[in-house]
Amino acid sequence: MSTTTTETSRTRSPFLHVVASIPMISSSLGTINDTLTNNSYTRYPYAQRLRSSHPRLTSSQSLSRSNWPHHCPRRQHANKAIDVVESRYPYPFRAQPVEVQETVSKAINEKVTTPAYNRFAPLVDYIESKVKGSESVPSAVSQERHLPNTKLNSSIKLLRTNIGRHLHDQSSIVQTASKTASSVSASSYERINALSDNMLAQLRKLQEASSSFTASLSGPSIQSRMTPIRQSYEDFAAALSILCVSDVLARSHPEPSQNSNGHTNGDAAPVNGNAQPHVKEEGD
C-alpha cells in the first residue's frame, strides 16, 4: 500500500522534484548550496540572487497551477520514464553519497594507488636503504613501513630529519669557523697595533738620538776639540805635498853615474893610486 502511495505521489509530483529527490543529486545540490553560502566571495551575490528569484518562483508556481490540466499528462509520462530507468538501473537512483565515495576510493586504491606503489616499490626500497643507513628501526615501525602507502612517507620523513640534522651540524660548524676567524682577526689586529706602536716608539727614539747627536756636533766643545785636529790634518797634508814635490823633482833630474873606482865619467883616471895632479912649475 505504501509503495502504491509513493508511486502515486511521485507520479503527481513535478518532474524537477523527482529528479532532485535522487540522493546523489540532492547531496550535490546541498554541497553546492553550502559552498556558495559559506564562501566569502560568493556569499553576498548568491544571497542577492536568491532574494531576487523568490518573486519569479512565486509567479511561476501560480502559472503552473493555472496550467495544471495541460501539463499533468506530460508530467506523468516523464515520471513514468524515470521509473522505467530506475527499475532497469536502480543503483544510480538509490546509492547514497557515502557509499559512492567508499566505492570510488576502494576502486582507486585497488586499480591506481596499489599498482603504482608496487611499481615504485624497488625504487622506494633503494631510497629507504640509502636514507636509513645504519639507523635502527623498531619492529612495529618496520612492519608498518612494509605497507606501500606508508613506506615512501616514512622515507621522506626520515630524509627530512637527516637533512635537518645535517644542516644543523653544518650551521654549527660555520658558526664555530666564524667565531674562530673573528678571534684570529681580533688577535692579529691587536698584534699589528702593538707592533706598529713599538715601531713608532723606536722611530721616535731614533729621531731624538739623531737630533741630540746633531746638536752635540754643532756645540762649542766639539768645535774647540776639532780645531787642533783640523790643524794637525792641515800640517800633515802640507808635509805630504812637500814630499810629493821633492819626489817629482828627483825623478826629473837624475844623479851622474859613477865607475868602479868611484870617479865620474868626466874626470881622467890617475896613473897610480898615490899620484897627485901635476902642477906646472915656472922654470919649466
Keywords:
284 residues, mainly alpha, 10 helices, rod-shaped, disordered N terminus, disordered C terminus
List the helices and strands and how they pair.
Elements: H1 2-12, H2 15-20, H3 23-38, H4 43-66, H5 68-88, H6 91-94, H7 97-132, H8 139-145, H9 148-217, H10 220-252
Helix pairs in contact: 7-9
Biased composition (Polar residues): 55-67, 255-264
Region (Disordered): 51-75, 252-284
Brief characterization of the structure:
With 284 residues, the protein is mainly α.
Fold and architecture overview:
Residues 51-75, 252-284 are annotated as: Disordered. Residues 55-67, 255-264 have a biased composition (Polar residues). By secondary structure, the protein is mainly α. 80% of the residues lie in helices and 0% in strands. The chain is built from ten helices and no strands. The chain has helices at residues 2-12, 15-20, 23-38, 43-66, 68-88, 91-94, 97-132, 139-145, 148-217, 220-252. The protein is rod-shaped.
Structural class designation: mainly alpha
Averaging pLDDT over every residue, what do you get? 74
Contiguous low-pLDDT stretches (5 residues minimum) are 1-5, 137-145, 260-284
One letter per element, helices H and strands E, the order comes to HHHHHHHHHH
Helix fraction?
over 70%
Query: What's the number of extended β-strand segments?
Result: 0
